[in-house]
Amino acid sequence: MTAQPGNLAALVDGVALPEEEARDLWKRFSEWMGEHRGDMAGFAKASGFTKITPEYRDGRAVLVAYTKEPPPAPPPAPPAKKPAKKPAGKGSGARRGGGGGGKR
């Protein structure tokens, strides 16, 4: 029988911590956040990281931490091109003139 990983994990500079170390980091992170609501930067600095953020990956809570500057985020995808609009005119189905309907 294969042991299943826990629900908590941690990555430091892209390297997974052993489960026990990950749980310890989560415990310290949770305690800090309980005392310093929303202060992830403070926890990172106090713990020797430049940045730390919780994420949800593959059904697990993962703390992602960096000891040096994290790599830049990938650039956003370019917007999808929309088809060009055809100008109104011949062949577009637009009616010209008064449209009729009056008495003759």
Automatic annotation (TrEMBL):
Gly residues bias: start-end ranges: 90-104
Annotated Pro residues bias: 69-81
Region (Disordered): 66-104
Protein name as catalogued: Uncharacterized protein
